[in-house]
């Protein structure tokens, strides 16, 4: 749903409108940028990083940890 909001389809949650607008502005500053939905399980590195971020109290993640 968030990818659709950022891509300009739908209005989004009213509490997130400012953030969505900021992201759209930031993306517009690039010559080429795309936002795509990628199921979490299909990207193993992103999945590992997300889990480490949620489970870790450390403020730093080193690539050798992955």
From TrEMBL:
InterPro entries, sorted: RNaseH_domain, RNaseH_sf
Domain named RNase H type-1: which ranges? Answer: 3-52
* Top-rank taxon: Eukaryota
A GO MF annotation of the entry reads: RNA-DNA hybrid ribonuclease activity
What is any Pfam family matched here?
A: RVT_3
This chain's protein is named RNase H type-1 domain-containing protein
Name the source organism.
Acer negundo (Box elder)
Starting at the broadest rank, the lineage of the source organism is: Eukaryota, Viridiplantae, Streptophyta, Embryophyta, Tracheophyta
């Amino acid at each position: 749903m968030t990818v659709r909001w950022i891509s300009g389809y739908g209005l989004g949650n009213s509490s997130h409108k400012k953030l969505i607008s900021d992201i759209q502005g930031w993306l517009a500053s690039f010559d080429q940028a795309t936002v795509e939905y990628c199921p979490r399980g299909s990207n193993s590195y992103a999945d590992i990083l997300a889990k480490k971020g949620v489970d870790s109290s450390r403020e730093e993640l080193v690539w050798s940890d992955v």
